[in-house]
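User: Can you fold this complex?
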Amino acid sequence: MLSINNANPVKRTFDKFQMKQITLIVRMHRNRSFGSLRGILRSHLIVAGLVIGAASFYSQGTLPDEKPTASISGTVFRKGTTEIIAGAHLELLPSEIGALGDYDFNPAILNMLKSRKRSFTAVTDNKGAYSIQGLPAGEYRLAVVRDGFTRTEYLQSIGNDRGAVIRISAGQKLSDVSIGMTPAPTISGTVLDESGVPAAYATIEAIALQYFPGGARRLRLVQTANTDDLGQFRLYWLSPGDYIVAVDYNGGARHEIFAAVPQDRPNLPLPEVDYPTFYYPNTPDLSAAQALHIGESGETSGIDFRLNHASLATLRGTVQNLPNSTIPDRPTQAQILLAPVRFPDGSISYHYRADTNGRFQIKGVAPGSYFIQAVGGSSNISLRSPSVRVEVGSKDVDNIAVPLFAGVKITGTVQVEGVAGPPSFDTSLVLPYFTGELGHGEFFPSRVAPDGTLTDAIGFPGTFQITILGLPNGYYLKQAILGSRDVLESGLHIEAGNLSPLSLILGKNTKTVSGTVTGFDNRPSAGAAVVLIPAQEFRNRADRYGRATTDAQGQFHLSGIPPGRYSALAFDDVAGNEFYNPDFLNRYLNRSVEISVGDIADSTANPRLIMVQR
Amino acid sequence: MISLLRVLFMILLVMPIQNATADTDIEGTVLQANIPGNAPVPNAQIQLQRDGSDPIYTRTDSTGHFQLNHILPGQYQLKVMSAGYVAMEYGQRKAGQPGAKLTVAPNSRVMPLEFKLIRAATITGRVNDNDGFPMADVPIQVYRAGYAADGRRNLTPVMFTRTNDRGDYRLYWLTPDEYYVSASPSAGRQGPAFTPINPNLLAERTGYPGWLYPGVPDLAHAIPIVLKAGETRDAVDFRFTQGTTVNVSGTVVDQKTGSGVLSQLAMIAAGDVRSGGVLQSISDAAGKFQFSGVASGTYSISASSDSGNRATKTIDVRDKDLTNLTLLLETGFSIKGQVHLSPDDPPMSLPQFSVGLISGGGTQIQSDGTFEIKNVRSGNYTVYSFLPAGLYIQSVRFGRSNAMTDLLPDPGEIRTAMILQGGKFASMTPGQIIVTPESKETLDIVVSSATGMLRGNSINVSGAPFPAARIVLAPEEKLRGIRPYYQMTTSDQNGTFSISDIPPGAYIAYAWDFVENGAYFNRDFMRKYEGRGVPVQIEPRTESTTRVTVISADEH
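Assistant: Here's the predicted assembly.
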């Protein structure tokens, strides 16, 4: 029984682990402003519970008896200067933890993986120096965070989301591992309404363009801010990159009863007229939006808007409980999520409530494409609808039917290829999960019992991609057999009712690909982004790509690569994970090094650095 | 102070005049207060809402005039808002207080209304660290001194914001009043709650205290900021020095087996203002845990295992590491129960609602009225329920415990744990039941629809109708201070009011021209008004009537 007294159209601000937590999410205020500090604390606690709850799938590994003695030290400085940076926080991460982009940009997964691995931290002293002692041998990446600067990994370049792997052998003392940081850039501007009056409490979004496995390009919400009473906003401490800036001053949505004016803004009137979402440079048309290129530092100011009204639509519909013996026949007060298709990962969604007869009405919806989804149920049962796509023009949309389904238990086993019985490794560390069309908006984790059976997994009608993380080195998900068919590529299609057991087959003969990247001067190229592109049929699976950043000698070393054919490429810049984009890839594939990773030997690839033309 | 504000917020209250049409028009003018010559507020938003209906909106024209046509008879709330002004409700004597219902009677006319809006106020400031560098993303909360829902004096949060990258914050469109401002760099820093997570911000900023302006730890030393209409108060600044932090470590142990258990842990700093935020940790498989970067203060540390067993302990953190803490996980157990409809009630099927134990877990009842509350730990519990309108808790028994009569609060004691859901307080028992793991009883809750109703009039000392008075129906002495046993409303422009769905019993009705929200839950406050209320007996399925003389806030 938690109470956070904010009931308004809520941008969903974190990832769902379990359906039953959704009721908690809706009470969270959008844009991180809460009615009270108590509210903040409570919501943090909820989320802490979720994240830790998920993380506690894992027991922590026991440390070896011998006290490790390796160390790493260096300095953090302002890039291009000799100025040191004190108070910078360093984190030495096990290299098997990838970058956020490896996990569908789902920070929940990243946090989960981080929580079960030991990482090491340090803070730079007033000489900008750090030192981390007592390290076990291993492969790591080193990241540094300091307020006002862009998070930087060792040998990370702009346009790459990860730095080089640092291999530390037992007892090794690595020194002079230094990182240069650049001040984090800011976007600022002013929003005026159509009368020229400052638009107060408008929501400003910084949106990155991001490619996903399979080639889909999606918008990814990176940061939000609110304008003040002068219409001014600051999107601060962004990472360098290309951003679309959007303004949401949709008072229409605030007409909704459930979506009242924020409680801590009692004197905030609605906008005088309804406004659609505007994109820089002042257009309501997303296709006419121009991405701002934000460089390494400084402030991009004057990102101003002067809004024009539009007639906004009302959406009406009904949530239907399908006849199903497991669904109680009493009405369920379902929660309705409205998510713009431009953020298909659900990183922005508005929440409403259907009445006890299942009817709902959403006012003030700007033209565009949306997904509507309903979730409901009681403490005993989770109900959820598939994502219903709705095209909204200037007219109201009526009779939207949103069917609710009961959760379908996903059963099955995890087995190692050619091995009878359960896997020999600790399965409590393994995280299988199922991701729906809404990306991490539909994220259903499972776990694996010691006997190899899948537990706790509930799916809903729809198609889900199957992923397994946390496998020991050398293992990979090779097949997902449902009935007699491998659904690894097509995805797991769930319909109402029962689902046949799923057999997840792990391959274990992965190999290592290593090599050196050379530049045009024929010298080794440090900090280059190496990408192993899998064969066509696996290009929609992030876990079949290989990613590395070359070290100071231009070398890279990628382990855990499943057998198969790969194209090895090295880029100076892979911003937005553009190598997932087939058009981009086709431009450069003729410069790749083709390799075949076999069952027996490790492979070598020495690609030449490609300077990406933008 | 209060009487000055009252004058500022006084609005013209009007009486309806007979007219021959079924529906009526509501018109009025919105003017700027304190400006000679009736300066209009153009484009002000007028919101008219009948209970349970969608609001209708209009805007004032360039002369500040508005008109809403064809309004059907009923009771309405009318609210006026304009950017930069304080929102005002019809019948409101002070911002933040409830307004009065505007009654549109059949075949009547509502005289033109006049609203005088006052300008809202602004607080700006900057948060720096000890080196003079701006601190970004610091939670800033404005509070007003008021009464909590349980009658205690407290700081009521009013508005929230965060500093930007320059360390600046701007709290705008505040209602002129007396405020306290807090900054808490270590509280609510970005966490997994907030996606997208800004990777360039530190996930935790430990070791900073939470301060009230001007940099003090508690209310006794804080300086209130008194804002006048239209005022901008700048430079409400904070400068923070990072305090020393220590480590807190120990083991989570299962009470039954005595062995360590993998658990998730959280440490929550006590108090709203001096909060260091929430710290999280996970123990290892042997139950060993450690929190690092803990600032001094009092914390509640809690652990829970995968199987739902929990442990809680309050600890004082000073300037030394705390080691060897032991948290004993208590195994939860289930209690079963049944919601019955009172035998005196006409038969009806029970709607779905939730019941539970305050701080002990809750659940939804099944269609046959049965329920099971899981993971309960031993203790004394107040029983609550989110009953649909029209039902009240008649009795609650758990074996020999009677939650209506046992373990009642001592006079003056305040039982804090109110439960709020969607703006509605749960019904709760005045007393408590005793629950132990050995309890084999069922929790029997009897609900009834035999509520009563009260109609009344607020009058002045000479017996004339007093419009827009705040009406409080306070329960008998033993239930004082228990929020759900109070009924509040505001009389309309004719001084009439009605309250329905009242649990039967003895009450005292009070009326004020102005009273702070929640003050009537406070025994010290109410002592001043002994004998000023009117005793009212509410009988089942009966309408009672009363006349209450309005107490003037100016008396004090």
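The helical segments of chain B are 2-9, 523-527. Residues 1-20, 272-276 of chain B have pLDDT under 50 and may be disordered.
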